[in-house]
Amino acid sequence: MISHAFRQGPAIGATLSLLFSKKGQAQAPEPLLTETVAPRPRALVDDYLRVVGGDPKAWAGRLPPHMFPQWGWPLITRTLHGLPYDLTKVVNAGCTWTVHAPLPDDQPLQLSARLAGVDDDGRRALFTIELETGTERAPGALSSTLTVFCPLPRGKDAPREDKKPKPTVPADALPIGERRLPADQGWRFSLVTGDFNPIHWLSPYAKAAGFGGVILHGFGTAAIAAELVVKNRLSGDVDGLSGLEARFTSTLRLPATPTVFLGPPEGRRTPMYVGTAPGGPAFLVGAVHG
Question: Contact at 8 Å (CB) between 244 and 97?
Fold first, then answer.
């Protein structure tokens, strides 16, 4: 799988460009940015699916929607250039995606992205980026959003905010499956996505950053949860899952064995949680649509 690292140049370059971009006066909503990228190599797609616990045969001829950060990251980062914030401190706060049509894997991907909103309350800024993915055969097949969290500098005399209690898995949530994740899960996910932030694979760096050890990517947690729902709730039918919402609420330290829990359905929307036990901390809070 190490060979996939050599295919991640655009994603790595986009991250470096973002980290070294200059502050500006850009505001949301910003103009729409567009780009066409080459089809994803099938070997990369299949290895990505194996890393997140999916079945490559179930996704034959198409792309899994939760893989959108891999092809969309370079364009996503361009929407953030010129913002008046310290972008070296941003972290992934959540994502959503909605499938409108199957996304074929053998055509160039037509992408469009824009910075849809900036919510600045003086303590932190939340950036909402919208990304559309399609092909010539399936225009607008996938709609996705990414929420980025940016902490803001605190003044010397700023009052300390009371910490809010972290979300937990509801006591009545139903466990539907678990996945054992090895210590190198973050490294494996980096190879197939291009997100090589060292907090996910370099333990000394992650400890120095205050995480106590390497942590899994939020996108990785969401993808694993989606595939467990497909496998254990939808009998492997990838068409049964039409959308996902995810808010990343706590770091998932590796190695770990997280469990996916579902709440009572609310129409076509079913609340979803990733944690270790009912009543315990939730690493992800969201919902699946089907």
Answer: yes
How far CA 19 is from CA of 85, 100, 156, in Å, comes to 11, 33, 26
117, part of any domain: yes
% of the chain at pLDDT higher than 70 = 97
Same domain, 126 and 190: no
Which among 80, 273, 265 is positioned nearest to 167, based on CA atoms? 273
Strand partners, 130: 114, 145
Query: What is the reported pLDDT for 50?
Result: 98
| Residue whose pair of structure tokens reads 């998932």 in the numeric block | 252
> Taking the CB of residue 28, how many other CB atoms lie within 10 A of it?
15
* Predicted local confidence at residue 161, as pLDDT: 66
pLDDT of residue 158: 63
For the residues 124-136, what does the mean pLDDT come to? 97
**Integer Cα distance of 60 and 213 in angstroms:** 36
Q: Are residues 178 and 88 in the same domain?
A: no
Residues 220 and 201 sit within 8 Å (Cβ to Cβ)? no
- Give helix 218-232 / helix 185-193 axis angle, nearest 10°: 90
Structure tokens at 221: 């947690």
CATH of residue 246's domain is 3.10.129.10
Q: How far apart are CA 6 and CA 109, in angstroms?
A: 20
- Are 238 and 270 in a shared domain? yes
- Is residue 161 assigned to a domain? no
- Is there a cis peptide before residue 165, judged by omega within 30 degrees of 0? no
